[in-house]
Design a protein that fits this description.
It is a single chain. The protein has 2 domains: 169 residues, Rossmann fold, CATH 3.40.50; 95 residues, NAD(P)-binding Rossmann-like Domain (Rossmann fold), CATH 3.40.50.720. The strands form 2 sheets. It has a 6-stranded parallel beta sheet with strand order 3-2-1-4-5-6, sandwiched between helices. Strands 9-8-7-10 form a 4-stranded parallel beta sheet, covered by helices on one side. The radius of gyration is 20 Å and the shape is globular. It is of the alpha/beta class. The mean pLDDT is 96. α1 packs across α3. It is 47% helix and 15% strand.
Length: 277
């Protein structure tokens, strides 16, 4: 039994996103006629929400067989996932709050189709192709990786000589890091924080770990919301840049003593460790 209210909610969210994605809409209309992906299979692991949903639909309408799973067990918009299945007949394997077992089972369902191309966010699909799903590896012609974390993982694999197919680092595109990383991450970080805590940022001390493009955006938005901002950064050039942009720069071990909010934007783990607490 389909939850009609949830379905309608998802359809409206997809329509809203589509109305605000004119470039993709124009490409989608052209590709619908040209069918450039006819006969190809595309496996996707992305945050399953309205904008990525429209991307998946565009690729399917361009002729590809598409399977979509989530790249994060907690990020799926169930209304969008349902609308993609019911309205667009898209194969979606995702739900909000997946267990670890369900998460990897859904990624395996994407790979079971024997994809030609991978669109990944965080590199979990690509990592599985090199570890537990080597049986699918001969089919793969190439992949895209969206985010900093995934690019770091894949560059390490490439440096070790184990990456078996070409991967385009979408995160290295100017349209990605100059706008999505800086402005999108900066705004969405605090949208999420304020929605979760119901607290103001103004007057608080915010420690931003990392001063790459995401870190710059988070620091900028923190300052704009009235926070006292401290930046931690291991790259001396970026640390000087943060200083010249008007932020205090400290080592994490010192910064956490003043912190009320700590936001890590490095793409790496273990930024906050036991000795910092």
């Amino acid at each position: 039994m389909v939850d009609t209210q949830l379905l309608e909610k998802g359809i409206l969210r997809l329509a809203w996103a589509e109305d605000h994605m004119p470039v993709l809409t124009a490409i989608r209309e052209r590709f619908r006629k040209e069918q450039p992906f006819k006969g190809l299979k595309v496996g996707m692991a992305l945050h399953v929400e309205a904008k990525t949903g429209i991307l998946a639909v565009a690729i399917q309408e361009a002729g590809a067989e598409v399977r979509l799973a989530s790249c994060n067990p907690l990020s799926t918009d169930d209304s969008v996932a349902l609308a993609l299945r019911e309205k667009y007949n898209l194969q979606v394997f995702a739900k909000k709050g997946e267990t670890s077992e369900e998460y990897y089972d859904n990624l395996n369902k994407v790979l079971d189709m024997g994809p030609d191309f991978i669109i990944d966010d965080g590199a979990d699909l690509i990592t599985m192709l090199h570890t537990t799903r080597k049986d699918v590896l001969p089919n793969i012609k190439g992949a895209n990786e969206e985010t900093t974390t995934g690019v770091i993982r894949l560059k390490a694999m490439a440096n070790d000589g184990v990456l078996k197919f070409p991967v385009m680092a979408v995160n290295d595109s100017k349209m990605k890091f100059l706008f999505d990383n800086r402005y999108g991450t900066g705004q969405s970080t605090f949208d999420g924080w304020m929605n979760a805590t119901n607290l103001m940022v103004s007057g608080k001390t915010v420690v931003v770990a990392g001063y790459g493009w995401c870190g710059k955006g988070v620091a900028m938005r923190s300052k704009g919301l009235g926070a006292n901002v401290i930046v931690t950064e291991v790259d001396p050039i970026k640390a000087i840049e943060a200083k010249m942009d008007g932020f205090r720069v400290m080592r994490m071990v010192d910064a956490v003593k003043e912190a009320e909010i700590v936001i890590t934007v490095t793409g790496c783990k273990d930024i906050i460790r036991e000795e910092h607490l």
